[in-house]
Amino acid sequence: MKFAEMKYERPDYHAVSEEYERLLTELEQAQQPERFVQVFREIDVLRSKLSTMYNIAYIRHSINTKDEFYDKENEFWDETNPLFAVYDNRLSKIAVECPFKEQLYNDIPEPYFLAAECNLKSFREDIVPLVQRENRLASEYGKLKASAQIEYDGVIYNLSTISSKAEDPDRSVRKGAMDARLRFYEDHEDEFDRIYDELVKVRTQIANDLGYNTYTELGYLRMMRLDYNREMVDNYRRQILKDVVPVATKLYERQAKRLGTDTVTYYDKAMEYKNGNPLPNGTSADLIQAASSMYHEMSPETAEFIDLMVTNELWDLESRDGKEMGGYCTGIPDEESPFIFANFNGTNGDVNVLTHEAGHAFQYYLSRNIPVLDLQWPTNESAEITSMSMEFNAWPWMEQFFGEDADKYRFLHLSGAIKFLPYGVLVDHFQHEVYDHPEWTPADRKACWRTLERMYEPGKGCSESAFLERGGWWFQQGHIFELPFYYIDYTLAQVCALQFWARNQHHDPDAWNDYLTLCRLGGTKTFTGLVKSANLNVPFEDGCLRDTIKTAEEWLSAVDDQSL
Question: What percent of the chain has pLDDT over 90?
């Protein structure tokens, strides 16, 4: 079914509540594993219907935040999801306390129960009003960004379309456009500061009410960190500083040399080549056609997947006024369909986001029939492995997207993956500091960001922007506002994706089958379990970063980027 034809209907909260209560009571009374699994499946049918309606409303609201109907529906879900979470929490309690739960693992894999324990530790009915407030604030941030009307050189842009100017060969254009983009954040600085200040306070209050000293403890539970902890992440960040920052710094020096500048400033960062970054050929329709051709050639599985996406129009890719920023993939479980949301702006990033989100969608397509709703997707860091690896799996077909500039794109993509790692852990480190110090003022937070920025990205010049010099860059990073602690995930996944890239470079005959295995497993294993199932090294292991980055650095060093 085409997405536009999918029916949305606001659920009757009271009717759903009654059904949930009845089924949960039956589950509590189940005396045999067979009966427990039967009722559990019935509950998942109910939850699947709710998830389907929520995601349809969420997608349509993000496509057009000015749509009054779906704006109201978004408000409904902001208020109601925490109420449904009360029942989900009771479900988790019943599952965790089931006296014969080990006998259920063949039908309901153990990671479900581990996640259920996280749910129990991270939610209680009395915090519902606080979670509702948190949801409203996160939605307010998204709407504020979507409202941006940025005038530059006589043209009105939004935050996505103005970003294309950051890759203009004319340095004065890049600076002017970037300054105009930053001016929106600076003009609304008090609003962004207020929203985030309130988010930090409400999240801290939620954590305190649940018995935690800081939100960081709660944040790890919310993110389902099933088999690693803060200490392991701290050690991982130290490895990034030791093994990756020096390599990334050298790549920035090479970039400055290509551009003919002394340093890579904030308005140079997106510009890799003096004569212009590689641009995808044609319109968004042409990119879809190229993607369709690529996935038909890649494998029988990807061919079936892309036909579903094209036939049912399961994406919205072009940037428009009133559309939320960013990109994402979500699932519509009752339709067994993924959906891709993006904001194309005519840059090489369009190919990145298309292949990245297609990786998410392909994973969901292969795991959509896992009979436990919560395990059709893995935890976030694991989900990002399949998406980032798909970006690299697409390398052999880049001529279809970039023509003679395909090699320029490959160099840009790989070097960008390495340069991203320090930024990714910077975002994570910043959030740890913020939630460890909830009493901080907005000025304190900006000062912290700037200190960490100099540590992880020492070559980025910000001296020409007073807003950035006082630490305002992070306003642009939606995850910090909307999905706290969801960012280290990208870096962990990137390290795994780079391992797949290296295996492809060495023509490893098992690499593709290992990737398919990872996709099919969904969330039936924990992060480290999934990584090992795909025959990859776990990023937390000492030496993993060093060996992975060395392989990539050798490839990049062999390329004469001055000739690209």
Answer: 92
Which of 408, 424, 426, 415 lies closest to 498 in space, CA to CA?
415
Angle between helices 380-393 and 488-505 (to 10 degrees): 40
- 93 pLDDT tier (thresholds 50, 70, 90): very high
The Cα 544–Cα 536 span in angstroms is 10
Q: Is 302 within the bounds of a domain?
A: no
Q: What are phi and psi of 461, to 5 degrees?
A: -85, 125
Does residue 142 contact residue 482 with C-beta atoms inside 8 Å?
yes
Sign of CA dihedral 321, 324, 327, 330: negative
Residue 251 near residue 553 (C-beta atoms within 8 A):
no
| Residues forming beta bridges with residue 460, ordered by sequence position | 264
Number of C-beta neighbours around residue 299 at 10 A: 16
pLDDT at 164: 85
Beta-carbon contacts of residue 32 (< 8 Å; ≥ 6 apart)? none
Length of the chain: 564
- The pair of structure tokens assigned to 152 is 């530059």
In a domain, 91, yes or no: yes
Residue 64 lies in a domain: yes
From CA 192, how far away is CA 177, in angstroms rounded? 21
- Alpha-carbon Rg for the chain in angstroms: 23
CA distance 459 to 563: 23
Confidence of residue 563 (pLDDT cuts 50, 70, 90): confident
Query: Which structure tokens are listed for 118?
Result: 């996280």
Domain extent for 31 = 3-113
With bands split at pLDDT 50, 70 and 90, how would you rate the model's confidence at 435?
very high
What's at 7, amino acid-wise? K
- The verdict on residue 474 lying in a domain is no
Q: What are the residues whose beta carbons fall under 8 Å from the beta carbon of 421, sequence distance 6 or more?
A: 240, 244, 248, 491, 494, 495
Q: Please write the tens of the pLDDT for every residue from 127-140.
A: 999 999 999 999 99
Q: How many domains does the chain have?
A: 1
H/E run at residue 317: strand 315-318
Q: Rounded to whole angstroms, how far apart are CA atoms 53 and 333?
A: 10
Quickly state the pLDDT bin for 39 (edges 50, 70, 90).
very high
What is the band of 380 on the pLDDT scale with cuts at 50, 70, 90? very high
- Is residue 152 within 8 Å of residue 166, measured between CB atoms? no
Q: Count how many Cα atoms sit within 13 Å of the Cα of residue 117 in the half-sphere of its side chain.
A: 12
Strands 150-152, 315-318: parallel, antiparallel or unpaired by DSSP?
unpaired
pLDDT at 213: 97
Of 103, 522, 67, nearest in space to 331 by CA: 522
Note the pLDDT tens digit of each residue in 384-407. 999 999 999 999 999 999 999 999
Residue 330 phi, psi (nearest 5) = -135, 175
